[in-house]
Amino acid sequence: MEKPVYLDYSATTPVDPEVLDTMLPYFSEKFGNASSIHVKGKEARLAVEEAREKVAGLINASSAEEIIFTSGGTEADNMAISGTAAFSKDFGNHIVVTNIEHHAVFETCHHLEKQGFEVTFVPAEPDGIVDAEKIRQAVTDETILISTIYANNEIGTIQPVKDIAAIAMEYGIYSHTDAVQAISRENIDVKELGVDMLSLTAHKFYGPKGIGALYIRQGSQLTPIIYGGGQERGLRSGTESVPLIVGFGKAAEIAKRDMEAEIKRLKPLRDRLVEGVMQSIEGVLLNGSMEKRLPNNANFCFEGCAIEKTGPKEKPEDYFSMSWELNKHGICASAGAACTAAGVTPSHVLIALGRTVEQAQGALRFSLGKWTTEADIDKALEELPKLINRLREEKKAQA
Ligand SMILES: *Cc1c(COP(=O)(O)O)cnc(C)c1O
User: Which residue among 52, 247, 369, 391 is buried most deeply as judged by most CB within 10 Å?
Assistant: First the structure.
């Protein structure tokens, strides 16, 4: 089979060969436990601390100590929200988030609701951006934390995180942002941003899977969610995964070096895709603001495509999925609906924008990255009209 065109960099990215090379010795000869006192331990510790500096440097943290390594973005989000809730529970029981958060934030909030916390989900505007003033209006005497996704993972819209952090500061409330999608696609400076906590993960920007971090501003306090040997300043116990941390550090170094050029390269490719789709296909809606948006994201609803198809639950390909249909045309992208164990649920983000369930079922997210070429975009522009026509014909035949 021909190599598929990969336009799903927001789901995950391949590990940069430079990153992989840097990691490899830490699986073999440099295998030490970073907590050991002997020479093998020192070697590992040095590598971990060097990587911490690089991750801190990528977001302009004041000190490397503000970086706590976790198993990824999900754990960083859980730690920020559950950890703050546990630490600050005597000061209040209310949390403010948006209604376009990643599941890692959403589900943590739902879990906290069961523990007696109250959560306000501030709705995004139809352009996929939350109004900071509406965040302010949601704050009560009980509010202990405001958490806002930096750039939405589905539609790429960028939130006014700096304004929201300023509001949090004004009321003496902790602020957190899930910046997983924005890292390397936006220049992020935590000092300028003013947030207390920020989540990152390596695998969304050419690092390995299973490693991330929570930036915690000096002076911010939270209760750990994992207990044990007291690694990571007691905030995240567990033997440090030295190879993954080293890879994360290298990915951060490369991102810092290449970000500006990469953003400049991606934007015209993304615009070529958006313009091409809008011109060649009728009944298309672009989801989210075109201006305040990540340079690598395009997300569309194709009207009249959500055909009914059900099959045995064990076989996801028998569910109707835009992603699976597009895959048959040699292109990997994400659908606006997730096939979960429970079935096909339309994206809460698209619904939050005011799209109907049917529109949301006809959604596709294209996310570009380091190895995306003009030829990839042209292939997508060639295949997409064919797919949409086919689905619309099938739907008509079904009716
Ligand atoms: C991918 C993603 C996560 C989860 O990160 P993992 O490292 O995969 O756990 C969290 N938030 C956003 C916005 C993401 O895109």
Answer: 247
